Description:
Layout: H1 3-11, E1 14-19, E2 26-31, H2 55-85, E3 87-89, E4 93-95, E5 123-124, H3 133-140, E6 144-151, E7 154-162, E8 168-171, H4 173-176, E9 181-185, E10 191-200, E11 205-210, E12 220-221, E13 231-236, E14 246-261, E15 264-271, E16 283-285, E17 291-299, E18 310-314, H5 315-328, E19 339-341, E20 346-347, E21 353-360, H6 365-369, E22 376-380, E23 383-384, H7 388-396, E24 403-410, E25 413-420, H8 425-428
Parallel strand pairs: 3-7, 4-17, 5-12
Antiparallel strand pairs: 1-2, 6-7, 6-9, 7-8, 8-11, 9-10, 10-11, 13-14, 13-16, 14-15, 15-18, 16-17, 17-18, 19-21, 20-21, 21-22, 22-23, 22-24, 24-25
Amino acid sequence: MNEREENRRLSGEVVETYCRPDPREVVEVYTRPLPGVRQTERREAPPPAKRKKRKGLWIFMGCLCVAVVLAAAAFVLYWIWNDTDDYRHDRFEEYYGEIIDELEPEEITMETWPTGQGVKLDVLRDHGESLTAQEVYRKVNPSVVQVMVQVGGKVSLGTGVIFTEDGYILTNYHVVEGGSDCYIALNTGAGYPASYVAGDPVNDLAVLKVDGQNLPAAEFGDSGLLTVGDPVYAIGNPLGYELWGTMTDGIVSAVDRDVRVDDRTMTLIQTNAALNSGNSGGPLINEYGQVVGLNVIKMSSSSFSIEGLGFAIPSATMDRVVDDLLAVGEVLPQPVLGLSVRLEATQLSDTDRGLEVVEVTPGGASDRAGIRVGDYATSAGGHPLETSGDLLWVRRQKRLGDELTMTLWRDGETVEVTLFLRESLEETE
């Protein structure tokens, strides 16, 4: 050992050398003693004397610690269990072949708001320019609210959409089912107690009312104009208030999808936009910032993974149902026309286009009015017909007992007829 190494040993300095294989750089890592501290040779400390008298004490202390830990864990589990039980996340239907978490219908006993006030849900047939996702969120999110409903000793948490500036709100019926009190929170943090206007469990729609003015009302668009592949967005409060105002995106996966829910069939919009518990009653939005659906269910399975299968109630359905609820508090029978037409209009002349009539129900409204197979319907109720969806939209504006004028193109001539709508859709099923 040279003199330098001997000095380092005596001074307490430790030198470690690490040689990297390539490019053989030498790295020295060292520690020095604190200034003024003299290092001495380390000596093994004598083993402590055994104290047999304290052995029982240590055992007692160990058992005490274990007991405290177990008691604390039990308290935490009890708190979590009871805290969770204080909330019933809205029954956002998750199913695969059958409904999971199915509940019996419960009576709504909350404070009510009168019907017949002349209010309607306006669903627009036209729209503006396409918007970016950020623009859609800024436009619609202020109209999306948190719905909190007292159900016994629990709280049902869901989503709703403001559709009038004076505080009418649309949500799912299962969100408010069994409720005794309701509270609405806006994205600004402002809150209002809400009253129950009316609801329909079959279509899973309910209308609430808060006493407010100049509230941010959403714009509703016609779901009948949607096609598969159109971009859509969902805004809601998944898993409750912690994540409220969450927006997800996707496309229209299918239109007019018949889905069996409980003991009824609902015709819904299918989308791959992510939906979760708490999204119930939240809007499905088109690329123009218009609400075209109300999110209601998603498909899931406990046996295997299912992704991107969500469903929304079309605005075309909401239009008729909500107007009935607002007017009389229940859904009125829907009339039928008694005919079938082609999906797209045919060019008949330089100025005329019409939907070809391919079937007429014997004894139905169209048959009594004199409509024949091979006629072309060019307008109904004063509205031009370009697609079968246009004719459906006209029919949804009518009620049982109404009259409907229709213009036909027959053998190069224009014919005017009047349909007397006496039969309901329920009677023909």
